Amino acid sequence: MHQDHPEIFPQRHTMSVPGGHRALRVGLGGPVGSGKTATVAALCRTLRDEVSIGVVTNDIYTREDADFLLRQAVLAPDRIVAVETGACPHTAIRDDISANLEAVEELEERVGPLDLVLLESGGDNLTATFSKGLVDVQMFVIDVAGGDDIPRKGGPGVTMSDLLVVNKVDLAVHVGADLDRMAADAAAQRGGLPTVFTSVARGQGVAPVADWIRERLAESTAGAA
Amino acid sequence: MSAALLLLTDGRFPAGGHAHSGGAEAAVAEGRITGAATLAEFCRGRLHTTGLVAAALAAAAAAGADLLALDDAADARTPSPALRTVSRRLGRQLLRAARAAWPAAVLDQLAADRPRGAHQPVVLGATARAAGLTPLDAARAAAYESAGSPATATVRLLGLDPFQAAAVLARLAPEVDAVADAATAAAHRARTEGTGALPAASAPLLDVSAERHAAWPTRLFTS
Ligand SMILES: Nc1nc2c(ncn2[C@@H]2O[C@H](COP(=O)(O)OP(=O)(O)OP(=O)(O)O)[C@@H](O)[C@H]2O)c(=O)[nH]1
Ligand SMILES: [Mg+2]
Matching CDD domains, A to Z (chain A) (predicted)? Predict the structure, then answer.
């Protein structure tokens, strides 16, 4: 057990598993029902043969997300933990991350060193983002059915996330969402940060998100060497 | 009064407390907390039982007593397995925040000795000491938390008027001070008489409800 280096990672006071190997932690935030759990499930299916994965869910008042992932058998049950958030999902991922850090460490103690930990936030509002003390990178998942003006409205999730995922593009025709406009608004708000369009539970799969994670994994491995 | 005490007791201090209701979620479900008046009674009961015990443990730890002996004493005073788990988990979370805020060899040692977490009041007292606070400060922090946690949770659970919740705590403040004084005196006696001199008040209904609550399939708070 060691403490992360105070100068390299001043924001982390994490007792990590011995060996210096540290999993890449990826946060998935976004409004209720946008497809965060569906994205986690699809990512696990896509990446589980390449890297060792753990998942932390932050359900608001149930174990629903964790149970869904267990039912779908996307990972072995001991690789999935649920954190209870006392009715405040954004607090647990941003203001007081201690329970989530415990959960990550519990995973690593239980199943050994991991390469990738996916942390799903409870569905919250557009201002909820992850603390840098908890995750290395974060994606914000919105959907076309929530209104095609969300990228224009901005807010920390849209403007600051390392990846913006616009999900459920299969529904765009049904709800009259203008995907070109969403793409243009997102580009204007995000100053060069990437945006991808998906339909994780339908045809157009999670591939662009998985590719983005592979790049981050390659970067973090290169950085650690 | 030191500003370090304000920081340690600030609800925004990142030590995991926000996900716990101090038994209020179960009490609300069982119809024992329905509004400000019943919340006040609940908080008073908790303050004079587990609050007193926690305050005495914290004061003793802040006075420099052997932390592992205090940890055993906390175990002996926590009959509910669910609450033992919660207390150790919160202790571990507090220790993480404490080591970042007030780095000290004694905190590192406690983490090494109790990797699964020491009891929260013991960590609270050790943290107070590392922050240069007194045993009485530590006792006040623990006693206040024993009432403050259910009050905050009830605002979320019942939509209770937050001004009423604040008023409940304000009216309890003299009792919180009195409990902290008694706890500090007991901690002082424990220096010569051992941990047996620490109070062992218990609240069986809190223990029973905590066990039930831990088995609920759906809940907002961890405890
Ligand atoms: N049509 C369509 N439905 C989708 C897509 N992705 C997810 N869904 C559905 O949207 C609903 C919500 O998906 P979840 O993955 O549970 O959303 P979430 O963001 O995890 O929701 P919370 O955790 O409750 O905030 C489910 O019924 C999914 O099947 C998609 O690409 N297209
Ligand atoms: Mg979900």
Answer: UreG
Of the CA atoms within 13 Å of residue B206, those in its CB half-sphere come to 25
Q: What is the pLDDT of residue A225?
A: 59
| Residue B3 falls inside a structural domain | no
Domain presence at residue A115: yes
Q: Whose CA is nearest to atom 21 of ligand 1?
A: A33
Residue A183: per-residue pLDDT: 96
| Residue to mutate, A28, A32, A34, ligand 1, most ligand atoms under 8 Å from C-beta | A34
Question: Alpha carbon of A152 to those of A108, A147, A184, B29, B72: distances in Å?
Answer: 39, 10, 9, 42, 57
**What CATH number is attached to the domain comprising B102?**
1.10.4190.10
Contact B221 A87 (CB under 8 A): yes
Q: What is the mean pLDDT of residues B100-110?
A: 97
The interface predicted TM-score of the complex, written ipTM, equals: 0.81
Per the CB < 8 A criterion, the answer to whether A93 and A1 are in contact is no
Contact between A145 and A171 under an 8 Å Cβ cutoff? The reply is: yes
The per-residue pLDDT for range A127-170, each reduced to its tens digit, is 889 999 999 999 999 999 988 999 999 899 999 999 999 999 99
In a domain, B208, yes or no: yes
A61/B contact by beta carbon, under 8 A: yes
Under DSSP, the state recorded for A79 is: G
With an 8 Å Cβ cutoff, is A70 touching chain B?
A: no
Encoding tokens for residue A79? 């690789």
Question: Known binding site: residues of A?
Answer: 30-37
Give residue for tokens 């007593």: B65
Neighbours of ion ligand 2 (CB under 5 A): A 36-37, 65
Question: Which residues on chain A are in Cβ contact (under 8 Å) with B153?
Answer: 86
CA–CA separation, B121 and B199 (whole Å): 13
CA proximity to A76, closest of A97, A103, A52 = A52
DSSP A121: P
Domain count, chain B: 1
* Beta-carbon separation of A99 and B96 below 8 A: no
CA A160 – ligand 1 centroid, Å: 22
Domain holding A34, by residue range, is 23-213
Q: In this structure, are residues A46 and A153 in contact, taking their beta carbons and an 8 Å threshold?
A: no
List, for residues A64-86, the tens digit of each pLDDT value: 888 888 888 899 999 999 998 88
Query: Is B7 a member of any domain?
Result: no
In a domain, B22, yes or no: no
